[in-house]
Amino acid sequence: MASSLSLANHDASLQNKIDMSNARKRTTVDVAVMRDFVYNGHNEWLRKEKIIEVLSKDPVFSKEGRDFMTRTEKYNRGLRMINRVSELENSLGWTKEESRLAMHSLDEALPISLHLTAFEPVFLAQASPSLLSTYAPLAAKLGIFGCYLQTELGHGSNVSALETTATYIPETREFEIHSPTLTSSKWWIGALGKTATHGVVQAKLLLPDKKSNLKDMGPHLFFMQLRSLETHKLMPGIIAGDIGPKAFAGFAATDNGFARFDHVRISKENMLSKFAQVSDKGEYIKPPHAKISYGGMLYIRSGMVTSAGWLIARAATISIRYATVRRQGNKGPDGLEFQVITYPSLYSRLMPILARAYVYIEMGRALSRSFNSMSARLATGDTSLLAELHATTSGLKVLCTTASVADAESARRSMGGHGYSVFSGIGRAYADLVPSVTFEGENFVLDQQAARAALKAYRTIFASGKAVTSFDPASLPPSTSYLRLLITSDSQPPLLTSASWLDAETLIVLLEWRAAALVRDFTTSAASEKTDMWNVDPTIYQRVSKAATEAFVAGQVREMFKTVDANNGLGAKEKQVLKKLYLLFLLTTIETSLSDFLAFGLLRMPDFISSGVTDPTRSLRRAISALCKEILPEAIGLTDALGLSDWELDSALAPYDGAAYQALWDRAQTEPLNQEEIPNAYEESIKPMLQRGQKLAKVGAKL
Amino acid sequence: MASSLSLANHDASLQNKIDMSNARKRTTVDVAVMRDFVYNGHNEWLRKEKIIEVLSKDPVFSKEGRDFMTRTEKYNRGLRMINRVSELENSLGWTKEESRLAMHSLDEALPISLHLTAFEPVFLAQASPSLLSTYAPLAAKLGIFGCYLQTELGHGSNVSALETTATYIPETREFEIHSPTLTSSKWWIGALGKTATHGVVQAKLLLPDKKSNLKDMGPHLFFMQLRSLETHKLMPGIIAGDIGPKAFAGFAATDNGFARFDHVRISKENMLSKFAQVSDKGEYIKPPHAKISYGGMLYIRSGMVTSAGWLIARAATISIRYATVRRQGNKGPDGLEFQVITYPSLYSRLMPILARAYVYIEMGRALSRSFNSMSARLATGDTSLLAELHATTSGLKVLCTTASVADAESARRSMGGHGYSVFSGIGRAYADLVPSVTFEGENFVLDQQAARAALKAYRTIFASGKAVTSFDPASLPPSTSYLRLLITSDSQPPLLTSASWLDAETLIVLLEWRAAALVRDFTTSAASEKTDMWNVDPTIYQRVSKAATEAFVAGQVREMFKTVDANNGLGAKEKQVLKKLYLLFLLTTIETSLSDFLAFGLLRMPDFISSGVTDPTRSLRRAISALCKEILPEAIGLTDALGLSDWELDSALAPYDGAAYQALWDRAQTEPLNQEEIPNAYEESIKPMLQRGQKLAKVGAKL
User: Fold this and answer.
1) Looking at B640, B666, B688, which one is the last position of a domain?
2) CB–CB of A182 and B662 under 8 A?
3) Among A72, A571, A671, B607, which is 20 to 30 Å from A690 by CA?
4) What residues in A contact B699, CB-CB < 8 Å?
5) Which whole-number Å values give the CA distances from B529 to A342, B390, B523, B532, B563, in the listed order?
6) B433 vs B310: CA distance, rounded Å
7) Same domain for A342 and A259
8) Are B336 and B252 found together in one domain?
């Protein structure tokens, strides 16, 4: 077939390139300056660029053909890549952080993530000094490969119901790890299926009392060897394997696994005992804080904001590039159809996504800083920052995972038919990120926690029904700073005019008022009296959680405006455009919850109402549309500034040079079905069917 | 490994079965009676049951291992199934309709769909009698396999910009079909990649005028042979192949293809000339109605409501069954955790999905009847029903595809972590249905058309700014019946109390008022003056389209209440439960557009406001939650009544008997990675990595 392809006419690709090049020329922001801002400094960008250069040139990391691979092939390729990064770490002298950056840049959900973000941090934070001295260096150099065994076939969100047991045997100073039932099988554990040699197992600690009855001390963590370091065979008494493919072909290279333990003995030292401990006799030594082991979970959750930001960045880059070169619809004076990005139906969808990418990446960074402060204090036993971070990350995890998954799908759909091709590149990213809405805290459960935290904060202040006059609003942490609005009893939500939609501080205060109004209203509902919210209508706590979290995020955006103003590296133009992005983010945040703002009377627009306008939401929508149009000429520059290379994006619809149609054509030629003109199905199925049909049609004709 | 599995404890599965059995006992509706209703009569149900029995017992249709297949294997399996159904059609004497039902029951997006729903209907409706006499019997018996070539690499929604040409050559009475550019390549054409022998090609008809200049007559349809019936090789001058995998691994068994034509000559008879024709000399003979060829598109769109209904039915059945046996969270007096379906966060999500399944299936049937009436008239040249069906299906296609895709994903997420396993069965269905939001009319474009139709209807009545007094509201077609509310100038939206939420007619009128208010408001906006809406903010026409379509749907639901009342086959209990489902459907329809109702002052609740309630939406939400709880005990019966067998559902999480955990465990054991204890990746990647890591850790220790 290849020979006949000379028929291809390259005009369209030429136009693609012209369109992309013109879009770049229209951009007025300095892309390099903006990129340095996105990457938090020029050196960070250079470091990343250098790593990407190494990876993109190495054949081990080639993405060719990966869309045609079986899961086993994808798994094998994943392990090859992990091994190669580990080699490069040593040969090129990468720091641990650089090697992590490399692993995360591979555009594939890999088992190493579980080692790096679940196993190692928990192990380092909670293992005893003696365990650490032996295994920490091995974990750091991948001399062992770890996983984190929490979820069971029958148990997820409710950790206290886990069935796996760890029974202490004082006689031998051992724990016996056991899976008593089918439903106690560990399940979904990333890297457990075929890769991991070791794991941290969450199990119910059972201690014998004086009468030798076993007492359940709740879930604790145990370090276990799962596979032989000589043969990779499972250790005696352990059954384990892969749980099978995931929906949407997501996480194909990760061996999420199951495991069952049949009375497996491990040494007492294998309990992660930095906090809770068991004496040789089997007495329980309490941890200083009941929730001290939450650190690992918070680490994973706070990292999810950054991942969400980068998924959105990827979706924005691909969809905006494609919409720039795709022409469809009416013809302009040049006789060409318009670029689809010039249509409001496209830019009104894509500019808010771009804005969200910028905000989330920045917010992820701030959250990492908060996590590090909390973590440093936690290491010294100081748990004072834990509650605040827990409240913040619960709501944020819901907000960011929901938004990023929705944005990725919205961006994919904006590409019309071609967006459904695997070569568009967004589907893959979506498939890998979509489980984030159900793992690491199911979003409904987290919404309950976030709402509860808001309620608690409210009640602390308004214990007697009205504000304690001596209460200092400045003492409120960022997560509930919006409650200050309720303390002065005469304060009112702002009055709005159409100019208000261009004033960031007004929008931020509006978002804070909405949180204050919803939380206050929530306290008057019967639901707030329940000690848990399992039996509460979810719309109640979801609205509260969303409102409180978006008020927190609005506060973060307030800080971003200040940071931009204070940044000497940015020029006036870049500052102006960044502020437009932040403003758009705030406006669309309000738009998606309009029913709340209307229901609580927060769109106070006396001028509009007196002028006889029926629909009070129209001026907001008009402001969003106008702002999107203003940002539009900068869109390609702003996506370039996200710094994602063609190798990273791996999208036929979004090559840097714009030549999407040629790229899509070229990719299609590599499809395995095209390697032979006559498919195998012909002899087996098609031919007999056609021949029978022809015979029957003839018989029919004769009748 | 298999030997050690004796460790498995079956208690949990036993509990699964007990939970399912108890849920069945709680159901008070007669499942068989309800099922006959869903299937539109006992005979229809029997016919389907008989077909499913044949299919589910035939090894060709076994679903074992399909989740592990490559795309090529899935394609081959698909063709085997098509061939087998065609064999069964003949050997068992199935009618054409029964064989279609069989094809559609295979739970796989197959190339035959394009033959049955795109190629054949268009061919039958528009081919000349001579073409029909030769090819219609062959198409009916699969002696030829057809596809429908419209979309091009560079052109989708805007059919008038298609680049493929059909140039008439009077000398030889031939058309020359040609693809002048890369972007004119036909693309996405289902069954074209490797299967189809023939196709209907949409191409720009070029006719020579007297000076032999070519005149563009716009897109027309041509019947072409693509592959040899002897060898299956492509006909001379044609390049074709498969366009590659789709996102989310969807449509894997369908060979969506590309094709390019290099000056391919076909006989003049091959033009589909029932309506537009070309004389031997090359003169154009106009069709009687410009849009007469829209029939095929409307057929596909009206079928999409039914498909959406059955996708939702599948999602509802799987998620409700799993939520019935999954126990998680707080413990009840029996010491067991509660079934998750008892939590509002689950049943408030799942009962509305179940209600939507019932409404859409019923509505799809009504729409098919409308299509058949329209089609019968169209065949006689009467186009009077075309505009109404076009207006209705545009908005409905958007509404139903968006809702069904969202419901499938919402149901999948309701299953928590396990919902992300491919074995859950919902991901597959989602992956195959999600392109429906971008194909057969991109949803934004259709929203524009629906909004325009609403506008046109409004202006016809209110030409001079106020209603023509002589206008008879009864003359309004169902699609714009809501406009009657504006004709009597003193009519007002209903006043609401909490009892209103239980009154279907009030809810229907409320939905109609919202459409009337939005359409009226739309006419006052500048956007309504534009001849096309490409340059209009999408939120404007999307809101209008949604409002108008939901008013139409509300009208359909009004008819459903009447149908249920008149149905003698249903008992009082079934009638009552069906009405609750319809009521819930109406309530949630309002809930999802609350911002519209609030912005236009349609939630007129004087009692609430005077009693000092802050949030006027609370009573609606409370009514929804209460109604969901009322329907809950019937949920398993209502999903059973949807009549989907275990073979059809193919879900490890939703076996009829409830034993989800055992099924999930069993499926995982069949994963190819589990067939050997040591993965191939061990020698290649894992071992070198571990050994290097151990060495480096040792070196580190010595330093």
Assistant:
1) B640
2) yes
3) A671
4) none
5) 19, 22, 8, 9, 41
6) 11
7) no
8) no
Min Cα distance A170 → chain B (Å) is 26
CA atoms within 13 A on the CB side of A618: 17
Question: What CATH number does the domain containing B172 carry?
Answer: 2.40.110.10
Q: What are the tens digits of pLDDT across the range A75-119?
A: 999 999 999 999 999 999 999 999 999 999 999 999 999 999 999
Given an 8 Å threshold on Cβ–Cβ distance, is A243 in contact with B144? no
The domain that holds B633 is classified in CATH as: 1.20.140.10
Q: Do B246 and A422 touch (CB under 8 A)?
A: yes
* Residue ranges in A286-343 assigned as alpha helix (H): 295-325
Instruction: Extract the tokens encoding A515.
Output: 């949180």
With CB atoms and an 8 Å threshold, state whether A12 touches B182. Answer: yes
Q: Is residue B134 part of a domain?
A: no
Q: How far apart are CA B618 and CA B347, in angstroms?
A: 18
Q: Are residues B539 and B520 in the same domain?
A: yes
Per the CB < 8 A criterion, the answer to whether A188 and A206 are in contact is: no
Cβ contacts (< 8 Å) between B348 and chain A: which residues? 537-539
With contact defined as beta carbons under 8 Å apart, do A212 and A308 qualify? no
Contact A181 B9 (CB under 8 A): yes
Residues B275 and B362 in one domain: no
Q: Which residues of A touch B676 (CB under 8 A)?
A: none
ipTM of the prediction = 0.94
Q: Which of B140, B154, B229 sits opposite A12 (nearest CB)?
A: B154
User: What confidence tier does A127 reach under pLDDT thresholds 50, 70, 90?
Assistant: very high
* Among candidates B328, B348, B621 on the partner chain, residue whose Cβ is nearest the Cβ of A156: B328
Mutate which: B164, B328, B519, B531, vs A, most A CBs within 10 A: B328
* Higher per-residue confidence, A188 vs B335: A188
Task: Report pLDDT for A105.
Answer: 95
DSSP per residue, A527-552: GGGSSS-TTS-HHHHHHHHHHHHHHH
Among A120, A440, A550, A634, which one carries the catalytic annotation?
A: A440
For residue A547, what are its two tokens?
Answer: 């409102």
Q: pTM for the whole thing?
A: 0.95
> Which one of B161, B329, B421 has the shortest CB-CB distance to A337?
B161
A282 and A362 both lie in a single domain: no
- CA of B542 vs chain A CAs: smallest distance (Å): 10
Contact present, B671 and B67 (Cβ < 8 Å): no
Active site (catalytic) residues of B: 440
Q: Are residues B259 and B322 in the same domain?
A: no
The residue out of A614, A640, A666 marking a domain boundary is: A640
Q: Determine whether the interchain pair A328/B158 forms a contact, defined as Cβ–Cβ distance below 8 Å.
A: yes
Q: How many CB pairs under 8 A join A and B?
A: 487
Distance from CA of A566 to the nearest CA of B (A): 35
Cα separation, B473 vs B512, whole angstroms: 14
Which residue is associated with the tokens 């200049």? Answer: B213
- Judge whether A4 and B239 are in contact, CB under 8 Å: yes
CA of A41, closest CA in chain B: separation in Å? Answer: 32
Do the Cβ atoms of B71 and A233 come within 8 Å?
no
Same domain, A488 and A604: yes
CA distances for A509 relative to A512, A550, A551, A596, B92, angstroms = 5, 11, 8, 15, 71
Q: How far apart are CA A397 and CA A385, in angstroms?
A: 18
In a domain, A52, yes or no: no
Look up the domain containing A451 and give its range: 297-640
A479 and A513 inside one domain: yes
Q: Is A250 annotated as a binding residue?
A: no
Nearest residue on chain B to A194, judged by CA atoms?
A: B679
Q: What pLDDT band is residue A5 in, cutting at 50, 70 and 90?
A: very low
DSSP reduced 3-state for A76: helix
Q: Rounded to 5 degrees, what angle do the CA atoms A404, A405, A406 make?
A: 90
Give the annotated binding-site residues of B: 151, 190
Residue B5 domain-assigned (yes or no): no
Q: Quote the number of domains for chain B.
A: 2
Query: Which chain A residue shows the shortest CA-CA distance from B690?
Result: A143
